[in-house]
Amino acid sequence: MATKPQFTIDNAPATGFHYRLAIFTGGGKFVDGYTLGVLSIALAVLPANFGMTPLYAGLVGSAALIGLFVGSISFGQLADRIGRRKLYQIDLAIFLTASILQFFVQDALQLFFIRLILGIAIGIDYAVGPTYLSEILPQKLRGPLLGSLAAVWRFGFLASIGVGVLLNSLNLGADAWRWILVSSAVPSAIVMLLRLGSPESPRWLVQQGRTAEAEAIVKKHIHRDAGIEDLVETFQNAPKARRSGIENLKLLFSRKWRTRTLFAGFFWIAQATPQTAIFTFLPSLFVALGLQSGLTPTLIQNAFFAVGGVVGMIIVNRFTRRGMLITTFWMMAVSVASLAVLPKPDAWLVITCLCIYAFIEAIAGNLQFVYPSELFPTSMRAAGVGMAAALSRIGAAIGTFVLPLVIAAYGAQVLMIGTVALLALGAFVSWKVAPETARRALEEETEPPTTNGHNQRESTTV
């Protein structure tokens, strides 16, 4: 009789492989944040003759978010059919190619299309990266290491601002914005090389019936005394993920799963819409709120953004997912409320409020890569995470497109009023429908709760 394995994937001890894979996956998030953040500095230093009107600024600013929608919703479903590993590696090649092409654009329309392609690559990484990492990590590491993806994203964003400001100070002339944008090719190339040789997700392999391959990966990379018998038992009666895209969409929005699908998308929308819009046009927003220059305050606020991501990574396992989500929504709303009330706030108040907002938003943003991965089973996890990311980008793209138009037509105060309202709505919706997934094995979420939601609200505080 075969000896029962000492460990499973969920209870295996932490190894160097787990941390290396977290670094490789986090590298993708660094590139995501860098690619999105670097645009804010490039837009601020574009020459006047480039033709970047408020309308084109909104289109270019939202292009990556539109592409992210397409990439996450399409390739998330594809990852459930063909596996995680191929897409995990391919998306960095797309990043590298499109990053280089930015240097050669001649007008705003060309820049829009290149940013659209970059957004598709980001969408692939949003859907596949957290899914892949969540399926390999043991339970005790899922919260902090998945949460670290958001922290690394914020450091990527901060790095792009720092590099952008540095390059702009080097007197590169009218082409400074080109060098700022193409700088994203460097981290893209590094992460692409790091990801070569990554194994397939053993959970996905077992779900496909390829148990021998899965067991070999588990014993080689996770622990020689680890096994997959628990997964085989879980998946023996489960259907293989060979559904078409339409079938996946129907399942995600079926009566059984639609509440979780819509919740995952909405909480991400409520977090990402103001965050993405504000950070894309942050230098201009600071000027609109009364500051003489926006570059230095932008760098300061992004530093708070990055530090908040680290704090969120550290504390994410110490609180319930549900309680952390609701509380941070209210804290963010309060942090910018004075900017919505006061028509002409002092400079120190503007900087303080937006720095506090950035810090709290970064803490809350850790849940974007943790929570959705815990809401869906392996057979539809990438599709579910991809759909949540896609839905979130609808709001983010609209917010980014509308922001320069709103500031030009109505001023920054109206923008702040809308931000507070959306954050308060996020808190209310989360209080009504958010399930609790913390401290559970990954496959315990294969069946959503069937009650009317009272049991989901057992813990509402952090």
From TrEMBL:
List the CDD domains: MFS_SV2_like
Specify residue ranges for compositional bias: Polar residues.
452-462
| One GO CC annotation | plasma membrane
Q: Does the keyword Membrane apply?
A: yes
Q: Which domain of life is it from?
A: Bacteria
Its record classes its membrane topology as: Multi-pass membrane protein
- Membrane-spanning residues: 30-50, 56-75, 87-105, 111-133, 145-170, 176-194, 262-287, 299-316, 323-342, 348-371, 383-407, 413-431
Q: Does the keyword Metal-binding apply?
A: no
Tell me the ranges covered by the Major facilitator superfamily (MFS) profile domain, including all copies: 21-438
From the Swiss-Prot or TrEMBL record, state where the protein is found: Cell membrane
Q: What Gene Ontology molecular-function terms does this entry list?
A: carbohydrate:proton symporter activity
- Short name of any one Pfam family annotated for the protein: Sugar_tr
Region Disordered: what ranges?
440-462
Into which family does the record put it?
Belongs to the major facilitator superfamily. Sugar transporter (TC 2.A.1.1) family.
Q: What is this protein called?
A: MFS transporter, putative metabolite transport protein
